């Protein structure tokens, strides 16, 4: 890894990153601030219990009267992971392949810099982006805003959920980066990661209520992300290990393929 290249990459993308982080803070703040009105609305839990069991299982619908159930359903199973995935998959796909497509990569590689150094500098940049998105924008907002609106949740449980979200998002970024670096087209990396996570979402969602599909659920990243309900049960280190192991394997394959192909242009 090259520290100068890492700092340059972070500086170039600083404005865009801040915009994404602000959007995440606003989204999370909105959901958190809605908790008092939703949790105290008469008949909400009764309505949820009247939904078909298959529907509740498919979308991991919890009770809205408790902070943990509300956060699990509305934030960590809803819009927030999708926003984080859009951010990191786009960044990952463009990290190397995007610069190659606009002929900037040749300038960088003309310097005394190995491909591995470039590759893992981009990896470090993505790791920092995911870290700030998850632990600053999401965790920090819930921890600070939640008590102001009587949404009290265990910091340890919240941290555990965010650890799961972190490794989940890092895997998505790694797939996009490796795919783009291996093929030289950012759309290829974005399509690869997008397809894996979109199909994985369908498999995990439908597999919760369809018995014959249940045995396929372990192939989905979403299963290892939220299948153990970490916000309610704490960190599941097996799940975290599976996602981390898949990330390491993906990055290793991506680096190997990137080192063995000719650059475009």
Helix run count: 13
Secondary-structure class? mainly alpha
- Overall shape: globular
Radius of gyration from the alpha-carbon trace, in angstroms: 20 Å
Task: Give the % helix.
Answer: over 70%
Describe, in plain words, how this protein is organized in 3D:
The chain has 265 residues and is mainly α. The protein has one domain. It contains 13 helices and no strands. The protein has helices at residues 3-12, 14-39, 44-50, 53-58, 67-95, 97-101, 105-109, 115-145, 155-183, 186-207, 221-226, 230-233, 237-259. α1 crosses α8, α9 packs across α10 (186-207) and α9 (155-183) runs parallel beside α13 (237-259). The longest helix is centred in the middle third of the chain and has 31 residues, at 115-145. The protein is globular.
Write a concise keyword list for the protein shown above.
265 residues, mainly alpha
Question: What's the short story on this structure?
Answer:
The protein is mostly helical. The chain has helices at 3-12, 14-39, 44-50, 53-58, 67-95, 97-101, 105-109, 115-145, 155-183, 186-207, 221-226, 230-233, 237-259.
């Amino acid at each position: 890894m090259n520290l100068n290249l890492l700092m340059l990459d972070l500086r170039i993308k600083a404005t865009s990153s801040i915009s994404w982080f602000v959007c995440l803070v606003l989204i999370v703040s909105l959901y958190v601030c809605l908790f008092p009105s939703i949790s105290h609305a008469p008949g909400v839990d009764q309505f949820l219990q009247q939904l078909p069991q298959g529907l509740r299982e498919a979308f991991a619908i919890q009770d809205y009267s408790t902070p943990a159930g509300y956060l699990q359903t509305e934030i960590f199973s809803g819009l927030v992971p999708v926003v984080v995935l859009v951010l990191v998959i786009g960044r990952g796909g463009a990290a190397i392949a995007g610069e190659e497509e606009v002929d900037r990569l040749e300038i960088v590689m003309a310097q005394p810099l190995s491909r591995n150094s470039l590759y893992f500098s981009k990896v470090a940049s993505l790791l920092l982006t995911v870290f700030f998105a998850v632990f600053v924008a999401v965790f920090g907002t819930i921890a600070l805003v939640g008590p102001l609106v009587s949404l009290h949740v265990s910091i340890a449980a919240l941290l555990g959920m965010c650890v799961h979200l972190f490794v989940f998002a890092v895997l998505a970024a790694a797939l996009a980066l490796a795919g783009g670096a291996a093929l030289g087209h950012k759309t290829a990396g974005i399509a690869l990661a997008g397809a894996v996570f979109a199909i994985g979402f369908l498999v995990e969602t439908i597999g919760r209520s369809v018995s014959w599909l249940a045995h396929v659920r372990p192939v989905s990243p979403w299963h290892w992300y939220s299948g153990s309900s970490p916000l309610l049960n704490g960190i599941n280190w097996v799940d975290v290990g599976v996602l981390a192991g898949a990330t390491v394997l993906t990055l290793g394959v991506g680096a190997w393929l990137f080192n063995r192909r000719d650059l475009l242009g």
